[in-house]
UniProtKB/TrEMBL annotation, chains A, B, C:
Its EC number is 1.14.13.82. SUPFAM superfamilies: Bet v1-like, ISP domain. Coiled coil: none annotated. Keywords: 2Fe-2S, Iron, Iron-sulfur, Metal-binding, Methyltransferase, Monooxygenase, Oxidoreductase, Transferase. The keyword Iron applies. One of its GO terms (biological process) is methylation. It comes from Novosphingobium sediminicola. The keyword Methyltransferase applies. This is Vanillate O-demethylase monooxygenase subunit. Residues 8-109 form the Rieske domain.
Amino acid sequence: MPFIRNAWYVAAWDSEVTAEAILSRHILDEKLIFFRQPDGTVTALSGVCPHRYASLSMGRLEDGAVHCGYHGLGFDRTGACVHNPFGAPPKGMRLRSYPVVERFSAIWIWMGEPDAADPALLPDFSFNDPADYCVGQGYLLVQANWELEVENILDLSHIQFLHPTTLGSSEVANGAYEWHQDGEQIWSNRDVYGEMMRPELAGPMGVPSDRPVDRWIHTRWDAPANLAIFAGAVPAGQDRGGAPGTPTGHLFTPATQGSTHYFYSIAFPRSMGPQAEILARTQVDFLKMPFETEDLPMLEEQQRNLAGRSLRDVKLGWLPGDAAGARARNILYARIDAEAATAPSS
Amino acid sequence: MPFIRNAWYVAAWDSEVTAEAILSRHILDEKLIFFRQPDGTVTALSGVCPHRYASLSMGRLEDGAVHCGYHGLGFDRTGACVHNPFGAPPKGMRLRSYPVVERFSAIWIWMGEPDAADPALLPDFSFNDPADYCVGQGYLLVQANWELEVENILDLSHIQFLHPTTLGSSEVANGAYEWHQDGEQIWSNRDVYGEMMRPELAGPMGVPSDRPVDRWIHTRWDAPANLAIFAGAVPAGQDRGGAPGTPTGHLFTPATQGSTHYFYSIAFPRSMGPQAEILARTQVDFLKMPFETEDLPMLEEQQRNLAGRSLRDVKLGWLPGDAAGARARNILYARIDAEAATAPSS
Amino acid sequence: MPFIRNAWYVAAWDSEVTAEAILSRHILDEKLIFFRQPDGTVTALSGVCPHRYASLSMGRLEDGAVHCGYHGLGFDRTGACVHNPFGAPPKGMRLRSYPVVERFSAIWIWMGEPDAADPALLPDFSFNDPADYCVGQGYLLVQANWELEVENILDLSHIQFLHPTTLGSSEVANGAYEWHQDGEQIWSNRDVYGEMMRPELAGPMGVPSDRPVDRWIHTRWDAPANLAIFAGAVPAGQDRGGAPGTPTGHLFTPATQGSTHYFYSIAFPRSMGPQAEILARTQVDFLKMPFETEDLPMLEEQQRNLAGRSLRDVKLGWLPGDAAGARARNILYARIDAEAATAPSS
């Protein structure tokens, strides 16, 4: 299945990209490099030298230009060759540069038509704005197609079965499920009543673990694969009081057809005081366990069982919780088909 | 080369399948799961959930049904969905179930037309009947096509060269070789005279190691790849007295085109008393060494040298000992062609 | 890209091939075996038994014949089957034998038409003649196509960037570059003036490390991939005096399309006395570091970035130092095309 190119993807957490080291990362099956200019802005370039196919990640940075580690050619932030140890910089050799925006604690990249790279199209992850929130940042590389990740987060009914001792409980399936589309966004909302929560989960959510609670877990999807979950809990029967819940980010970027970058986060408002920092750090660590030891193996098994096919290629079963994912996939497939229809033949 | 589907294959030793854990195994390139019902009978089902391609081996067992570890769907012994945490069990989603028979200490599976799965077609491995014999059970997964395994056991002339210090001796090539077909079975018989045997081999065979002995090694093949060897020895020149010899089983089941399950066994009659149990255990351990460190590397090298081709695709040399194997392959190819001619186009 | 078959390739260093053990090595994607006869001459044979595709490297040597470890067939130095434990040696089964020449401390093999295997076509590596030189022998298996290796050695401008702390210096790019073709040979010559050399490099080259030196590094190529570098240095401004420089060999032999045997050497004349032996040993060890930890990773990254394409398939950039390599590639492609035009269809 082709990738959607005209979209914003998270390429890295802001903390991963520096002016001192070159970050190398495959995105939509292309090898890219990332680094910061002396002024702090981020540069994203194709990661292979056009001279002899050397990997530029093996080079070095100098004054905001990357110098190839093989024959010393230097390329600036626009991808133009600006340094040649053996003569004038050749005009014919240049790297492709990619539009990037640094926002919401992340570096976002646009892999499609550069002219279409409008920052206004960025999904709203303002709860990850480092000015207002302490953001715990996590990362996993998962050997599974990105579409499986979208399905996984849009249908959280699985937390009862895949995460029984961490994020789930036996009451999840008895909860209420609702989904709706709001413009291009899809919401997949699960409300669970009368759950007994483990102390590890109840504590940070501010509810007791010795009495039943009511929990809401509301998921928002922006195409292609940028998801947010807003989750909160109150003692059973108590009014929720309009609190939005703690936001977590689940930002997926295809590395290859069979592997996906998973940027996950949990954020607490700085207005909480010093505890926000501590909670961000400890809670993103808490999430790592189920994400890495429960979700990841399941998704990688699905990927192996699909044996090179995408979800679009196969017959799928249907459960009520699949409605939001199915709608998202319809939107995605329409965009893929639209891009294929207008793509220049290469 | 296509697999033969309408045949009994060993899927597992009886001891491998329990009511407590799910056994996952690839057979004829399909991912299957095996477990026991509360009544002890064995269930074999396709191992991938039709809902979202999760591996059911990551699920759990409850009352003879397997429950998917992703969204909790439960499937009974027939493969029907009988449990859905989110509503009525959907009729459209079901697993494929496979006919199995538990006999001769093994679980046999039929991968072809279920209606044709006649237990009367099981090959006779009554020497592995746990009621009468103590059966030592061994298992190896070999990265080689099953056909190479059939050739290996049907031509035991190799024991002189591949197993010189364990199963073979320098006299094997001087022995007599005879083969014949008996109905659908092929016999490949080797009689060796005047061998000096090592104590490790002579002892369990009940002959001295300090004097020459006469040994018979008679191999029986049932299609596709279920072989028995009956071997015995007497002091040189002495009458064999009609003893059939110690039976070993060599039961091969294709995992994929390039890998094969090797179930091997050695059996001693319970009528021997407590020694039967000890001999079964120690002798199956003794066999592990040559099978794992001598046969396995040779077969895996052959597989690499064939580079994706089957024996049917290549020119082979011819030695007298190849006659039985050649006849077996002709029978196998005829069955493969017959199945291909009648298979529904998929 | 097809291999050039009608050419001499180094198959092994002389010290690697003995009468006691079978050396197994892939060359031009064929599995070959090498061993010595009792008279010391080297035999090269196809490495797969024609009987059942066993690897002959798992066999044993007896009187200059290789005996298969599976069923005992023996093949002599011509590849003819000369031993069959079960009857007369079958005429139809034989191994392919390959012309080999032992010269310049190496075993050279001819993979093409045997009649064309003229030792007069061997490239001149007389500086590796063990009668006159102490030859330090090194070996690496590199996961990169052989063509990348040719380019690497024909354009040594990279030593400034890839080997800054071992073989290079910041003055390399400022040096003079000249290339020319001499018959079928190509020379790529680099002269660097006023370099400060590190003691590790200066010492063995016989120049001071505390004053500038002039260095010459002249590379000679013989098709397909046999290269020599003659390098020397004198105090800056001093006359070179006609000294040829220390010779190093860079002999590349395709193992597969994506992997190459790299035989490298450094030689010192025996006329130097006992120091020649010590220098050969220590200097070949010194070279191992940059070759293994700097060139090899770069070449393997190039190979991955080419993703199955050869340099002939892709657009390349152009720097002045590429002229010699480009000429060499033109000669190579002409030979590949010529062999393809005359090859029997197989």
